[in-house]
């Protein structure tokens, strides 16, 4: 905290770095932050959320949406979504895509079906965003298994199906291989087949990518009732 209680957060709007100034008056409920908070009482979480709400007009205006809506504003680099309904049964192709993204250190996020953040019998929260930390292929007595390692940002609440923390499918060697701990820390594993079924979409952000990409930004002013058209000529792929 600073003595003035004033903070500047840089966000990106249409790729343009945009400063947002907020104070540290945070909405509370029952003596705790009413919305986003840190388990270790770190203030930056509340300040970042307040800047996000100010950018969009209110906290209510930011209660839903896909992870890429935030990641593009936070990083200023390209992000895109892949709806699992578009996979059309090609889980192998989707797995190859996940492996490439993981190899290039893409930031990968996931969104579940539904709304309301309700927890079903599987342990998955509806209408909720998760982090996809990494992907792993392991060799078992029954053959190779492709696993997705995910994290619930709440820091608790996990998948209860096959390859969950308490699953009997694990051996000590396999746990060590992928870093699976039997703890309610929000981090868990599931097969890519279960992942496609349990989650509605996967979001990719190239923030930490080693892949080279080029982009430039220019602002264009025009009247609201006029149309704007752009023509691009790319000298290379």
Strand percentage lies at 25-35%
Biggest sheet, open or closed, and with what strands and sense? 6 strands, antiparallel
Q: Give me the secondary-structure category.
A: alpha+beta
Strand order of the largest sheet: 5-10-6-7-8-9
The helix fraction, in percent, is: 10-25%
Number of helices: 5
Question: What average pLDDT do the residues reach?
Answer: 90
CATH architecture name of the largest domain: Alpha-Beta Complex
Specify the CATH homologous superfamily of the largest domain: Cysteine proteinases
3D architecture notes:
It is a single chain. With 237 residues, the protein is α+β, with helices and mostly antiparallel strands. It has 2 domains: 6-63, no CATH class; 80-205, Cysteine proteinases (Cathepsin B, Chain A, Alpha-Beta Complex), CATH 3.90.70.10. It is built from 5 helices and 10 strands; from the N terminus they run ββββααβαβββαβαβ. The radius of gyration is 21 Å and the shape is globular. The model has no long low-confidence stretch (mean pLDDT 90).
């Amino acid at each position: 905290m600073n003595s003035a209680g004033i903070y500047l957060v840089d966000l990106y709007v249409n790729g343009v770095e945009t400063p947002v100034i907020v104070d540290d008056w945070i909405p509370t409920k029952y003596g705790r932050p009413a919305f986003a908070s840190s388990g270790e009482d770190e203030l930056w979480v509340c300040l970042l959320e307040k800047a996000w709400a100010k950018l969009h007009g209110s906290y209510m205006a930011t209660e839903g949406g896909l992870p890429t809506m935030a990641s593009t504003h936070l990083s200023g680099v390209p992000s895109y979504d892949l709806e699992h309904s578009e996979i059309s049964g090609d889980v192998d192709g989707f797995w190859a895509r996940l492996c490439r993204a993981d190899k290039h250190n893409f930031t990968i996020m996931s969104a579940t079906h539904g709304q309301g953040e309700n927890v079903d019998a599987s342990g998955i929260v509806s209408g909720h965003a998760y982090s996809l930390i990494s992907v792993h292929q392991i060799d078992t007595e029954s053959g190779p298994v492709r696993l997705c390692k995910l994290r619930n940002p709440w820091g608790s609440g996990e998948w209860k199906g096959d390859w969950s923390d308490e699953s009997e499918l694990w051996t000590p060697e396999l746990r060590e291989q992928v870093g699976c701990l039997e703890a309610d820390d929000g981090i868990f594993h599931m097969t890519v087949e279960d992942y496609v079924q349990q989650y509605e979409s996967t979001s990719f952000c190239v923030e930490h990518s080693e892949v080279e990409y080029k982009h430039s930004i220019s602002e264009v002013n025009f009247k609201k009732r006029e149309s704007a058209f752009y023509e691009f000529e790319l000298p290379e792929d």
